[in-house]
Amino acid sequence: MWEPYSSRREHHGVQLYGALNIDRSDAVARLDQYRRNYEFFNAPVALFIAIDRRLGPGQWADLGGYIHALMFLARGHGLDTCAQESWARMHRIVGPFVNMPPELMLFCAVSIGYGDRGHPANSFRSPRAEPQEFCRFFGFE
User: What's the whole-model pTM score?
Assistant: First the structure.
């Protein structure tokens, strides 16, 4: 990652691990927290999202829109979600486990359930960049 993305990502990590009272130097606790991804953060349902390997950037954008719509619709039904890109690294395990055809590529997982509002990881909201920091319109003077 490069700036400004690396510092934004770093700031989010500082907030998350700070809320969890995990010191940056505590590698064991940090790894334990990371491993919770692979328990779907205790969600009762998880979906594995895959895409055909032959598809390109346009379809990846469509998939992002689909995932967003899925998460938005779940919220409309009172459910909470968590998109988990970390699962993409587990494609060699997940693929055979769910009988995923080889032409599909594991993109992410989405955990679905009822969020624990009292959990420290849910006690903060990451700041958002102002639109002028990440968005430019060309041809509109």
Answer: 0.86
Question: Which element (helix H / strand E) includes 106?
Answer: strand 104-113
Please state, rounded to an integer, the average pLDDT across all residues of the chain: 94
CATH number at residue 111: 3.40.109.10
Please count the residues of the chain.
Answer: 141
Give me 127's structure tokens: 């700041």
> Can you list the pairs that 6-10 forms with residues at least 24 positions away whose Cβ atoms lie under 8 Å?
8/129
Q: For residue 6, which phi and psi values (nearest 5 degrees)? A: -65, -40
Domain with 24 in it: 1-38
Close Cβ partners of 74 (under 8 Å, ≥ 6 residues apart):
80, 81, 112
The residue among 100, 104, 106 whose CA lies nearest residue 88 is 106
Number of structural domains (the chain) is: 2
Q: What percent of the chain has pLDDT over 90?
A: 82
